[in-house]
Amino acid sequence: MKARTQVGIIGAGPAGLMLCHLLRLRGIDCVVLEARSRRYVEERVRAGVLEHGVVETLREAGLADRLEREGLRHAGIAIRFNERSHRIDFTELTGKAVTVYGQQEVVKDLIAAALAAGTPIEFDVMDVAMHGIDGKSPTLRYRDAKDTVRELTCDYIAGCDGFHGISRPGFPAGVIRTFERDYPFAWLGILAQSPPPSHELIYVHHDRGFALFSMRTPQITRMYLQCAPDEDIANWPDERIWTELRRRLEGDDAPALEVGPILQKGITPMRSFVAEPMRHGRLFLAGDAAHIVPPTGAKGMNLAIADVRVLAKALDALYKQGDAAQLDRYSDTCLRRVWKAERFSWWMTSLLHRFHAQSPFDYRVQVADLDYLTGSRAASTALAENYVGLPFEET
Ligand code: FAS
Ligand code: PHB
């Protein structure tokens, strides 16, 4: 079966779904192909923090009703080291704030908006393959949920299929250059039914390893423990998790940590990764398909939204005014912001995690770095303006 659309989108994560919404608002038709089920993508627990600019983007796109009701506006975070917490006041330093609203909630809102508008999102597709990305009418061939072979002819293809998708490997050999850094640790992520220990996030530097106390609602806490890069979740029964969380939160002013049922736990690898360029011919990469950041800076999903803001505006200029200049600058425009987020995420990760191979001197310097950061308005402002989100790049 053959069909045609203006933009074929691979992947129904934040990048693909947000691009679909922004294109639809501009009257550009698109089709989203997603390998998983709707239930799977809506239940996948990942990011938790929305930058100021991303909240504005969702609001301008008419997607913020539930976010306004259920999102938690956070005016700062705590950085904890040497068993003491130090608040970084985003609003005092930058006039902005972030919003805690789970990625899965953003995905649910985007899917609901797409389906209400009749935009086709095909879930449970198989064997998506790209053809003719160097030509004027690239095609996507796949098997749909009913196992029927389909062919979708497009003007453009958006590879929003994440780090393990097919779009980045679909570039011709030798075109893409990658830049990466691995870290000697991973995060053990926990979702628990217990009130968060604080009304704001607590980032903990501790001799035993990093910990992060975040949340999803006033009743559901989201926490992370630095663990070995090859950690086996089977080694972490609930009792051990709570004991370790308490040990890393210890101190005179430590907030109480209330034990509750653990709803989900898993290991997230840590890596920094960028693929350049983010475009080849009629194929555009966006989000994790093009770049990965360690989640310490809470940038992953925010970068995905920033990419597709650029792509939607560029496609609109092309279709409405025949102006291809923004599209030609797509990769450079996105990469300027991507690299600043890569830098910030690497910096936050290096500052807060325990590098067990580091020398005693390096450990002292790390603690001095934290002491300077939390004692200097200039240093705290630098953290704050990156955390709430740098201004979007002008396309
Ligand atoms: P996504 O990976 O979200 O979406 C890609 C979609 O494409 C998926 O639904 C996938 O099923 C689909 N797909 C893949 N291959 C396909 C194919 N061949 N055909 C069709 N569909 C295909 N970021 C933070 O800011 N904070 C965090 O705490 C955080 N935690 C994370 C934990 C984990 C385990 C992971 C993997 C990531 C985490 N991230 C976090 C980063 C994450 O939020 C990403 O940045 C965000 O999901 C990026 O969105 P997308 O680019 O849309 O990619
Ligand atoms: C989360 O709530 O999942 C979260 C928050 C901040 C981070 C990473 C993850 O830096």
List keywords for this structure.
FAD/NAD(P)-binding domain, 395 residues, single chain, 2 domains, globular, D-Amino Acid Oxidase, Chain A, domain 2, 21 strands, 8-stranded mixed beta sheet, binds arabino-flavin-adenine dinucleotide, alpha/beta, binds P-hydroxybenzoic acid, 6-stranded mixed beta sheet
Question: What's the SSE blueprint?
Answer:
Elements: E1 2-4, E2 7-10, H1 14-25, E3 30-33, H2 38-43, E4 49-50, H3 52-60, H4 65-70, E5 72-74, E6 76-81, E7 84-89, H5 90-94, E8 98-100, H6 103-116, E9 121-122, E10 126-131, E11 139-143, E12 149-153, E13 156-159, E14 177-192, E15 202-204, E16 211-217, E17 220-227, H7 238-248, E18 262-276, E19 279-280, E20 283-285, E21 291-292, H8 300-321, H9 325-328, H10 330-352, H11 360-375, H12 377-387
Parallel strand pairs: 1-12, 2-3, 2-13, 3-9, 6-15, 13-20
Antiparallel strand pairs: 4-8, 5-8, 6-7, 10-11, 11-12, 14-17, 14-18, 15-16, 16-17, 18-21, 19-20
This protein binds arabino-flavin-adenine dinucleotide and P-hydroxybenzoic acid (PHB).
